[in-house]
């Protein structure tokens, strides 16, 4: 896998005969690097992706976020699973070659789900998985079918999910996490995009800082 660097366009990752953009957000004293894919409705520049990268950077987790080809090329329809997992694989290989820290893999929504398939399909060598708003099922259609492969993941997993996420019915997500032997942290009043209810949220910290603290604790527990 090749990578080109341009002072204007930033990083470019090769996925077969296609190229996609990528952004590396460094951390002052990194404890890990997280390869992190975007959701179906946004791209690597989406405000949620930026907020997660900024918050994680402050706690020592560098991020390599990237575009899937459909967003790079301006399409609305997501790529096939085969193309998506190949993109994740390319990003992981680049990170493994260029960043000398423990390597974790995850993503927001669609990006996390494709990361979970990629680590199984390609047996990717990462220390752990971090899923932000894992899309367990479509809105209004509770199911665990999208999670059937998670039991095959050998690495430790952390799920960061909002209590108001319409794509992850709480009881179903709890059952999935238990079967997968993973860790789940609920984010009070947060929805799928981490919008919160300020009047009823008891925590005073920013939801992205809350996520970052959970992620830091998880990374340290895996790597120590």
Can you give a write-up of this model?
This protein has 224 residues and is α/β, with parallel strands linked by helices. The chain has a single domain, classed as Alpha/Beta hydrolase fold, catalytic domain (Rossmann fold, 3-Layer(aba) Sandwich). Helix content is 33%, strand content 24%. The chain contains six helices and nine strands. It has helices spanning 47-58, 69-72, 81-98, 110-121, 170-180, 207-223; strands spanning 3-6, 10-15, 18-25, 32-37, 61-66, 102-108, 128-132, 157-162, 183-187. The chain has a nine-stranded mixed beta sheet with strand order 1-2-3-5-4-6-7-8-9, sandwiched between helices. Helix 4 links the parallel strand 6 (102-108) and strand 7 (128-132). Helix 1 (47-58) crosses helix 6 (207-223).
Descriptive key words:
single chain; 224 residues; alpha/beta; Rossmann fold
Please tell me what the overall shape is: globular
The topology string of helices and strands comes to EEEEHEHHEHEEHEH
Distance between the termini: 30 Å
Radius of gyration: 16 Å
CATH class: Alpha Beta
Average pLDDT, rounded to a whole number, is: 94
Proportion in helices: 25-40%
Task: Summarize the structure in short.
The chain has 224 residues and is an alpha/beta fold.
Secondary structure layout:
Blueprint: E1 3-6, E2 10-15, E3 18-25, E4 32-37, H1 47-58, E5 61-66, H2 69-72, H3 81-98, E6 102-108, H4 110-121, E7 128-132, E8 157-162, H5 170-180, E9 183-187, H6 207-223
Parallel strand pairs: 4-5, 4-6, 6-7, 7-8, 8-9
Antiparallel strand pairs: 1-2, 2-3, 3-5
Helix pairs in contact: 1-6, 3-4
């Amino acid at each position: 896998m090749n990578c080109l660097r341009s002072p204007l366009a930033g990083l470019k990752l090769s996925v077969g005969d296609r190229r996609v953009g990528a952004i590396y957000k460094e951390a002052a004293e990194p404890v890990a690097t997280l390869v992190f894919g975007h959701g179906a409705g946004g791209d690597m520049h989406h405000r949620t992706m930026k907020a997660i990268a900024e918050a994680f950077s402050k706690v020592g987790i560098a991020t390599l976020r990237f575009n899937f080809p459909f967003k790079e090329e301006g399409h609305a329809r997501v790529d096939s699973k085969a193309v998506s997992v190949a993109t994740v694989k390319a990003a992981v290989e680049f990170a493994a070659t260029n960043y000398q820290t423990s390597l974790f893999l995850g993503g927001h929504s669609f990006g996390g789900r494709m990361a979970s398939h990629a680590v199984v399909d390609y047996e990717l060598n990462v220390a752990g998985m971090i899923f932000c708003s894992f899309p367990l099922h479509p809105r209004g259609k509770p199911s665990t079918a999208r999670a059937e492969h998670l039991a095959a993941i050998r690495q430790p997993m952390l799920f960061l999910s909002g209590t108001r996420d319409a794509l992850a019915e709480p009881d179903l997500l709890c059952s999935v996490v238990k079967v997968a032997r993973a860790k789940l942290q609920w984010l009070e009043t947060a929805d799928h995009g981490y919008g919160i209810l300020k009047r009823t949220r008891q925590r005073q910290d920013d939801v992205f800082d809350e996520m970052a603290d959970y992620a830091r604790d998880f990374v340290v527990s895996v790597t120590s």
